[in-house]
From TrEMBL:
Pfam families named in the record: Bac_luciferase (PF00296)
The protein's name: Probable F420-dependent oxidoreductase, Rv2161c family
Membrane-spanning residues: none
Luciferase-like domain location: 17-238
Gene3D superfamilies per UniProt: Luciferase-like domain
Length: 278
């Protein structure tokens, strides 16, 4: 089981360069970064799990920060947890993703999700009830651009003409592009979406995971997907006695440990403590 790390990286925390170097030197498998473009002051949307951390409004662009991390490492995996696909122009996002994956030598994992902040999404022109269909459509459009040959796409929310576009992501196959994991709460709808157009699930750590994974594996298999190809990365994990062993026994492929959104000294102290899990 791979052990990676995540934090709300901001203009006030440890830098992506220092963090990436430290993670690679300490043997961590990857660095995952979340995304918010902005947090509207007037907000009715409830933050999942309680009070919204102030760092949400200060997050660095994950793709810019991960590009810095890629430039100073050789083995460290790079990922998003998660990219708000519906809030991006898909042609531009496809270029950013492919460029980062190319420059990092295929080290990118794309965590995607549907979001929780209606006000933020609205500023991007997202109609909330259709956001899941929008994400599915934009992933299909991006995969058309990542195809080996010029491929047109006409969808409900966007289209692109058959085009010459490079670079291409490193991974080829039925699902072109980097490994894609969908974040979200468990349930039949999410399981179906994972089996339809992703490579696996990125849940937030919590109870009941073995049962949920069994449900997902059933849907995955019934959809004709290869059982061994399902990838599960549990994120935002605060490690404690027995927790990582429990995840490993449940068949989790990767655990992403939660670091504090703090300065260099405090983050390095926590990394030193977390080192015993790597």
């Amino acid at each position: 089981m791979r052990i990676s790390a995540t934090l709300y990286l901001t203009d006030e925390t440890i830098t992506p360069v220092r963090l990436a170097r430290e993670l690679e030197e300490r043997g961590f498998a990857g660095l995952y970064l979340p995304e918010h473009t902005h947090i509207p002051v007037s907000r009715a949307s409830a933050y999942p799990g309680g009070e919204m951390p102030p760092e949400c409004a200060r997050m660095l662009s994950p793709f810019v920060a991960l590009a810095q991390a890629a430039a100073v490492t050789e083995r460290l995996g790079l990922g998003t947890n998660i990219t708000l696909v519906g809030q991006h122009d898909p042609i531009d996002l496809a270029k950013q993703i492919a460029t980062l994956d190319h420059l990092s030598g295929g080290r990118l994992t794309l965590g995607i999700g549907y979001g929780w902040n209606r006000e933020e999404a609205a500023d991007h022109g997202v109609h909330w009830p259709t956001r899941r269909a929008l994400v599915r459509d934009r992933m299909a459009l991006m995969r058309a651009l990542w195809s080996a040959e010029p491929t047109a796409y006409e969808g409900e929310f966007g289209s692109v003409a058959a085009s010459h576009v490079h670079p291409k992501p490193a991974r080829r196959g039925a699902l072109v592009g980097p490994r894609t994991l969908i974040g979200g709460a468990p349930g039949p709808r999410l399981y179906g979406e994972i089996a339809e157009f992703a490579d696996g699930w990125m849940p937030v750590g919590g109870g009941g995971l073995p049962t949920r994974l069994g449900e997902l594996r059933n849907v995955w298999r019934e959809s004709g997907r290869v059982p061994e190809e399902l990838y599960v990365a549990v994120t935002a994990v605060v490690p404690e006695a027995g927790k990582l062993e429990h995840y490993a026994a449940s068949g989790v492929d990767e655990v992403i440990l939660q670091l504090p959104a703090r300065g260099e000294a405090e983050v390095l102290k926590v990394l030193e403590d977390f080192g015993r899990y790597v």
